[in-house]
């Protein structure tokens, strides 16, 4: 009986050491996934732009939908606060000049995204906003390369209210900062 109690105590000690390390690993995995998703999104946008020359739909009349050029899981803005919105719809959620999609991290909208077409004075670009800086999202927006993406300023682009940064989209967009 005493040996059994000692085994249970030893298992309890081992569990108390291992459990906190596992929760830290989960956060690290979420951060890595968010960085990978943002890189994939930028790569997909650059590829789409290189092929089509713009961010229009197949008919060339309206803005493309996010699902037209990427499979990165994005969400729409929620109706209240920074809580997670619905997943992006494949047919109705077009890219636009205000954050129309959010990269979700830690169960909240983390990074707002929008794409602006090329004009005579500015290149096509993707704009970034920080939707929240709480929890895991706060760690994501301070890690490289996300920090560089958010703080980048595309030449010729005037940033609007609440826009943290803008990255030019072209065939030579660098996602490896």
Kindly describe this structure.
This protein is α+β, with helices and mostly antiparallel strands and 177 residues long. It has four helices and six strands. It has a six-stranded antiparallel β-sheet with strand order 2-1-3-4-5-6. It is elongated.
Query: Which structural category fits the helices and strands?
Result: alpha+beta
Largest sheet: 6 strands, antiparallel
Helix content range of the residues, please?
25-40%
**Global geometry:** elongated
Q: Over the alpha carbons, how many angstroms does the gyration radius reach?
A: 21 Å
Strand order of the largest sheet: 2-1-3-4-5-6
What is the β-strand count? 6
Estimate the strand proportion: 15-25%
Give the count of helical stretches.
4
- Uncertain segments are 79-94
Secondary-structure element order, N to C: HHEEEEEHHE
Overall pLDDT metric: 77
Report, as a whole number of angstroms, the end-to-end distance.
60 Å
Brief characterization of the structure:
The protein is of the alpha+beta class and 177 residues long.
Q: What keywords describe this structure?
A:
single chain, six-stranded antiparallel sheet, 4 helices, alpha+beta
Layout of helices and strands:
Layout lengths: L1 H51 L13 H4 L4 E4 L6 E4 L13 E5 L2 E9 L8 E6 L4 H6 L5 H6 L13 E4 L9
Antiparallel strand pairs: 1-2, 1-3, 3-4, 4-5, 5-6
